[in-house]
Design goal:
This protein is an alpha/beta fold. It contains 6 helices and 8 strands; from the N terminus they run αβαβαβαβαβαβββ. The longest helix has 18 residues. The protein is globular and about 45 Å long. The two termini are 28 Å apart.
Length: 208
């Protein structure tokens, strides 16, 4: 009986899904947000290669509203900016905000037109991440990945933060791409631009 109970508890832990949000807008009511979510991802850097103007203030408001809130981040790299400077700026911003070193990288939107160059850029970006002690998932979806990275599976060992706006917090509809399988999906953004505490956020689920 004891073995059965332990096994059931383990299954429960493995099956747990943690709801969280990601956002870039200025927070109006941090207490309202942390009462609803304990995991929050803030935009750290935009595609212009600059630290997002709302990041530091948003992180400060959340930290003051709750001591147990987990603050991660996401960044959209700038292809025409220096990698070392971008990563140094991200590291500096994260340390100053006392946020977590998990800053995921967006692979969608504006990138270069040459997949081979994009693959090299992302490899170099991640190598610089490792040097300064940052880590992160890759944020993408199948259409964006194939357009930007082509058939590359070079990043399959990095967790995937999957974008699929089907308004469902599960990953039952996931189809493999980029070398990723369901086992590699760390999180999913499933509803965009949802109104939470008077601002627009994206709704996400974290699986591991």
């Amino acid at each position: 009986m004891r073995i059965l109970i332990v096994a059931l508890c383990l299954v429960s832990v493995l099956a747990a899904v943690v709801p969280f949000i990601d956002l870039e807008e200025p927070i109006k009511d941090a207490k309202c947000i942390v009462d609803k979510y304990k995991v929050i991802s803030l935009q750290v850097m935009g595609p212009n290669g600059k630290i997002h103007h709302n990041f530091a203030k948003n992180a400060d408001l959340l930290k003051k509203a709750a001591s147990d809130v987990y603050i991660g981040g996401f960044a959209h790299p700038c292809m025409n900016c220096t990698i070392t400077q971008q990563v140094a700026d991200i590291k500096k911003a994260i340390d100053a905000a006392k946020a977590d070193s998990m800053v995921s990288i967006m692979v969608e939107g504006k990138w270069g037109d040459n997949p081979a160059n994009n693959v090299k850029f992302l490899k170099d970006f991640l190598a610089e991440y490792q040097k300064v002690g940052l880590k992160g998932a890759i944020i993408s979806h199948e259409m964006a990945w194939r357009k930007i990275m082509g058939p590359s599976t070079d990043f399959k060992d990095i967790p995937l933060w999957w974008i699929n706006h089907d308004n469902k917090p599960d990953i039952t509809s996931f189809k493999a791409f980029g070398g990723w399988t369901k086992d590699n999906v760390m999180a999913k953004q499933y509803t965009p631009h949802s109104a939470v505490c008077e601002i627009k956020v994206n709704l996400d689920s974290q699986y591991h």
